[in-house]
Amino acid sequence: MDDYAGRVLADRYRLPRPPADEFELVETRAWDTFSNQEVLIRQVLLPEVVSAEPGPHQGDGGDTAHRALEAARAAAAIPDHPRLVQVFDIFVEDGSVWIVSELVAARPLAAVLADKRLSPYRAAEVASDVLTALRVLHAHGWVHRNVTGGTVLVCDDGRAMLSGLAVGAAQEALCGYNPVPVPAMAGGGEAPGGGWEGPHSALELERARQARLTVIGPVTERWAPEQATAVHENWQLAPPVGPAADLWALGSLLFRSVQGHPPFPEENTAELVQLVIAEPPAYAEECGPLRPVVESLLRQDPEERPDAEELRGWLRSLVRSAPEPDLGLSTVPVPADDPHKLPVVRRRGELVRRRKAAAADPVPAPSAHGRHKRTKERTQRSARGPRSLGVTLVGLVLLLMVAAVLYAVLFMPRGGTGDDEGAAGATRTLPAQVPGGDDRPQSTKPRNTGSPATKAPRSSAPATSAPPPTRSTPADDGAATGLGGDFRLRTDPEGFRLAVPNGWQRTGRNADGQVRYTGGDYQLLVVPGRDTVADKGSDPIVYQNDEPELAGFRASGWSSASGLRRLDMGGISAAEGEFSWSDASGRQLFARNLVMIRDGRYHVVLVVGPDGRRADVKRYFEKAAETYRTT
User: Where does the Protein kinase domain lie (predicted)?
Assistant: First the structure.
């Protein structure tokens, strides 16, 4: 109660004491003395010309106050839903309407966006929860009219909730508009304010226009084109405000969440209203896969916007296609276990304190509870338990190690294929160079590409059986290497050799030092020693982060990286990674990249293809990386 030492509202709700240099907050926590629970109280100020007390209406001011109170109470009567914040109480005091709601363990979306922008997929998750709440309101005939970054709450568990319905209804009633739907009016028997339906004359409309510009302010989400047209000079041509206005607000909120700024400038309320009516919104260039959804929701004509069911399908498909989170360079390797340390296993109740021999007593001292009494013999046996258990564990571990070694010696194959796609400390084995200018691999053990059909058979021919190819023209000698019928070993004039799929065309070395092999939608890029270690440093991971061949990945608004790791390739320092991004034309690309340091220079092998054909990209890359040699 010391935290709530401020004023008391309605003889029930205790507010916290505000700091000396601040006014009381418009939205604050409070303590409900009736239920002994924390609640959230929101203040809606009434204009000075409006009577703050409901009851006998005296003139237009009293009617307006009564309409605001009844509109908020009608909004609070909607049944509870997991995606809607509950409203407990609504009352008028000291010239304001006070709305009491539940206190949710969440942050407003505006506070989340102040720290960082959302990714398109995370924004789709939040929008899906908000759309669920809007569908409930629309089913009861309500239009929320207050979907903003302050009313969307992001909970600690990741879900989103929607609040602010009662506040928005009270504000709309204060501005001269009736937010209560007809079914809600029929349920109460009479519309709030005695059948009031909104402004009818030009004078009433001008008052409503000025009031809404002042009360709502420059918030893009609350100025859908049909709402902005209602306060414009051509108000009689404005379409009715319906569920499409909430979907427009949701599209504007998605734009703000991903782009980091609203679709229209918000310096002045009147200018914002004029821009919403006359100008299209800004381009959603950084929304990635969410861009078509945002642009369709921000259409000016309400009839052209997607309905809630269609939008729900789009958002669900986006959430389902979201990539798995990738830590990338932020991954912290777990230190290796010390083989000299064994775990200490204790059973519950076996850890007891030994008494000194001089103070030994055949009868244990009485304890507070009879179930804790033990004899001396049982105490000593329990104390010896962990030591004997540790000796047993050591014996079992030694037996398991001996059995594993015997099994490996007797039953494991001598020359099978291996998989080096393990942890960050994996080792890639390269064949040794053969003296005499021919560096054909002595061992043709292929890398495991994940498909039995792509594993090449072992070659029984010696590595020096074929003469070294010339450097003048690329040579096709795949038949002598055991690569199979899909690949040929090509010796390139630029001083390297690697396996290339049959039928791929070679493009000469360009100004960036790249040699390209192209086959349909796939490309194989080789950079044979363009950069030196003296210029770029000796860390292949750092070089891969700034590699010119991955400039499209770094420039893309939607991209992800995985499998970034260092490799030990027979004493050669190297790095490897997988990258996916969207190019300027909207195509989704996937690439496998390998960086090696040979003779003080960086060599790059990169295979790029469609994101939907990752298996083929990995297959081509495995063959090229396994057989790449300098000549």
Answer: 1-315
Query: According to the model, what pLDDT value does residue 572 have?
Result: 83
Structure token pair of residue 404: 């594993």
CATH classification number, 8-320, choose in 3.40.50.2300, 1.10.510.10, 3.40.50.720, 3.10.20.30: 1.10.510.10
Q: Are 319 and 128 in contact (CB under 8 A)?
A: yes
DSSP letter at 447? B
How far is residue 593's CA from residue 617's CA, in Å, rounded to a whole number? 11
481 touches 444 (CB < 8 A): yes
Pairwise CA distance, residues 74 & 70, whole Å: 6
CA-angle at 425, arms to 420 and 426, nearest 5°: 10
In whole angstroms, what is the distance from residue 268 CA to residue 270 CA?
Answer: 6
Alpha carbons 608 and 132: distance in angstroms, whole number: 40
Confidence bin at 112 (pLDDT 50/70/90) = very high
Return the C-alpha torsion angle 547, 551, 555, 556, nearest 10: -110
Taking the C-alpha atoms of residue 46 and residue 68, their distance in angstroms, rounded to an integer, is 9
pLDDT digits (tens, 9 = 90+) for 489-510: 889 988 889 899 988 989 888 8
Residue 144: pLDDT band with limits 50, 70, 90: very high
Instruction: List the end-to-end C-alpha distance of the chain, in Å, as a whole number.
Output: 81
Task: Please give the backbone phi and psi of residue 192, each rounded to the nearest 5 degrees, phi first.
Answer: -60, 135
Helix 243-259 with 120-139: angle, nearest 10 deg: 160
Give the separation between CA 286 and CA 588, rounded to whole angstroms.
15
Domains 8-320 and 427-630 fall in the same CATH topology: no
Top-confidence range, 414-428, 566-580, 592-606: 592-606
Q: Which of 486, 492, 435, 493 is nearest to 464 (CA)?
A: 435
Residue 79 pLDDT > 60, yes or no?
yes
Q: Give alpha helix (H) positions in 157-268.
A: 165-174, 182-188, 192-195, 202-216, 225-230, 243-259
* CA separation for the pair 26, 41 (Å, rounded): 8
Separation of alpha carbons 442 and 170, rounded Å: 82
Q: Dihedral, CA atoms, 262, 266, 267, 272, nearest 10 degrees?
A: 140
pLDDT at 415: 46
Instruction: Specify burial of residue 182 (Cβ count, 10 A radius: 0-12, 13-18, 19+).
Output: exposed
The CATH classification of domain 427-630, taken from the options 3.20.20.210, 3.30.870.10, 3.40.30.10, 3.40.1000.10: 3.40.1000.10
How is the chain split into domains, by residue range?
8-320, 339-354+371-412, 427-630
